[in-house]
Structures are given as structure tokens and as C-alpha cells.
User: Fold this.
Amino acid sequence: MIRSATLTGEQANRRHLTLANGTGYWRSDLIVSSESDSPAPQAFLIQQDPNTVVRPHFHVQDEFQVVAEGNGTLGRHAVAPIHVHYASRHTGYGPITAGNRGLSYFTFRAVTTPHAYFLPESRDQMQNLPKRNLLGHTVALSGAATLRARKEVAIETIIEPQPNGVAAWLLRLPPNATRVPPEHEKDADRFYLVGEGVMVARSERLPRFATAFVSAAERDFELVAGDEGLEALVLRFPAHDGK
Assistant:
């Protein structure tokens, strides 16, 4: 399965919501699945209001988050564009505190889940599973002119490959270049997020902040850059038999 979405195409469902603690945020759904689907990927953008806090919580599915705009903190760590965070299922993280410019971040899950379980009141629902909470280093994206002038493919590791297959990279491709992303010897789902330039997937042009989900069954997927070049995040989930 390959599913893609553009941020501009999904802004029609953008809506403002408020958490129980008064924190306001905008949510735009990019890829939506039913819990009965297989695969059931999920991708959305959160634009958290300035100077607000999302309390510590956990989810029942593995997830990546990518800070795209604004400033703030995740737990005790300052975050800014472009930051990649991974939390395994039933792993607590946070709080997420937006700075004075607000904080915008994408959430990606290979398996959809509708709920966040806030802590400490939901601790009795947290299963005793291995806890993985990984925060990559900040990566800088190129400007349009620099990207167009690029001559060679470059790969930057953001989250080092883990024993269960989890990893994240930034790939920088010259105009019209093609690259097979890093692979795992076992099947693993991936999300791709366009940071700069254009990615071409099945003849569809995916611009900045567009995303594509590629299931583990799609082993021959290639990253293809448009005339503008491409900088894209590769977010790899645990292998299907990963622990």
C-alpha cells in the first residue's frame, strides 16, 4: 500500500480544538484510516497555540513526531524545526510546551489510534512493554537555490537504526535524481515527509510538507526528486516481528 496526502489538499478539515487543561490547537488530518483497516496508517498536523502545554501522556501505538515550525520544549529538551521524535507504544512522553511562536508538529503512526492517555491518571492502563523514547538531533533544510544546485545524493542519519528496525534519515537528492531509501532486512512500514523541494510518487507531485505512507509490502519503492530537487525525511517503524 502507498497512500499520500498534501498539506494544502487537507487544510479543508483544519479545525481548532481545546484540551481539558485549556490548551488550544489546530488539527489537520492528512491520512485517515479506520481501526479495522489493514494497514491502517495515520498522519496529521498539530499547530499548538503559543505558550500552551500538552500534559505528559502515552499512546497504544508506535509513533513518530516531526517538529515543523515554531519553538518549544518536549519534556526537558528544546525543540525546533526540524526535530524528529519517536515513542514506542505505551511509552510516556512530554509535556509538550509551545513557545511564544506556537509549535507545529506532524504525527505519524503505522497503526491508527484515536486516543491519548494522560499521566498520571492513566498509568494503570499502561502496559509493561519495552519503553523507547528517541529524540534525534536538529537538521537544517536547504533553500531552493541550494537544493537545485545539488549534484550528489546525501543521507543524514537522524535516529540511528535500532535493533527492532526503528530509524530516521534525511535524504537530500539533486533535481530528478532517484534513490532507494535505506532498507531493513525484515519488513517495516515507512512514512516519508517532504521537507523541501518535490517528491514524485506514482506520477503525483508531492510538495513541501506532503507525506506518503509506504507499507512493508512495497519493498521496491524509490524516492524520486522533481525538477526542484528533494529533501525528505524517511521514518521507519519497527519491523513486523520487531519487539
Summary: The chain has a mean pLDDT of 93. The longest strand covers residues 223-239.
